Amino acid sequence: MSNYLPYTPEEFATDDYFIHWVLSTDLEAETFWQNWLETYPFKRNEVETARQLVLVAHQLPEPTLPDSEIAALKQSVFDRIDADEPSQTVVRPLLSRWYWAAAVLAGLVSFGSWYFMTQERETKAEYAQLVKQATEKYDLVEVENQTKPTRLIVLPDGSSVLLKKGSKLSYPTYFNRNVREIYLTGEAFFEIAKDPTRPFYVFANEIVTKVLGTSFNVRAFPDDKRIQVTVKTGKVSVYEAKSPEAAHQAQTRRLEGLILNPGQKVVFSKEANQLEANVVKQTVPPVSARQPETIQEMAFEYDETPVSQIFSQLEKTYSIRIAYDHERLGNCPVTASLTDEPLYEKLKLTCRAIRAHYEIVNGEVVVTGKGCN
Questions:
Q1: Residues in domain Protein FecR C-terminal (predicted)?
Q2: Does pTM surpass 0.70?
Q3: Which fold has domain 301-369?
Q4: How many other β-carbons are positioned within 10 Å of the β-carbon of residue 242?
């Protein structure tokens, strides 16, 4: 491993391991660099400058200016590089001069004007763009709900998602060992399987929600002026991500996020391009004469409750059918706290309580057991 202490921002930006850290989600690299920065905190500014150089150099699109203007722009940047060179010779890895042009442009105020004036549109962290980039890493499954009030999706790790009408969800066919990532446009309620070693990220247009295991709702329709995240159980972090690059920074913990606790919500205003700072307590109207209508309001808490009532609640909530022997199993009592569990975990714990087991047959939950009498 190199001795990074004497490195300048330019030398960091050309180091293979540094570049790998900036552009990937490698936990080993993340751990190394975070520990290194804790040891040498006075290098943080230089490291941040180098990180921006790497991001710009790898994300800068092909220029669309006339050749004469491109040549003039390059030459002005090269002149700036030459003027900033130290008198002694510095040995650096071989790079194209255009790479260094991009790096210097990242630090110039004029770059912002040039970039936005010469591109047809800004690359935003929108669903289609995020999914397109994700296909370079994963084989994705896309599910769309056009007709039903909610559609149940069970993810590869056992997490359950209730996808609302008019929404789309894309997720990998399997999650890797380091991270779980899914992509949403529209609205969905999530119950995430607990796995402290693999954080779970929901990319919803211009925000990123990070959890380890909890339940929450995300509303992020493309035509809405606001994106909302509401937490039912557990704790989540919500990050603003105006671009795919910012979404990546959320994964590597280099963005400031808002921490939400149960019953809280946060709103991202697209017009203001920021998360609203007033994270408020989400109040639920008293139930009194009515029954809870949405899963966000429901409590899956049972005290000597007949399993038939539990199965009935699960059927209505998740729009599934549960087949079992009502005479043999229906009156078996269950005492359990299942509010913070995804569907399959609810089924597993319920069946364990009545000494039964379940399996999925042709999209139907089939429960078998000897009964409790």
A1: 300-367
A2: no
A3: Phage tail protein beta-alpha-beta fold (3.55.50)
A4: 18
